[in-house]
Amino acid sequence: LHKEESCERRRLQRAVAVAAVAVAAPSQSDQMHFATRHPPPPPTPTHSPPPALSSSISASP
Questions:
Q1: What is the pTM assigned to this prediction?
Q2: For the chain, which residues score pLDDT lower than 70?
């Protein structure tokens, strides 16, 4: 019984450690993954694009 209890406690500690890592990791790795998967959308001009932007678009092949 005592041996089982210590094994259960160790399993609980491991689960807590895994949960802590799972909670701490997303702040960095998930943000990086999110940034690479979903790049920020380009700012959409409300009216017409500025002349510099339109000229660069027309000049590019």
A1: 0.33
A2: 1-2, 22-61
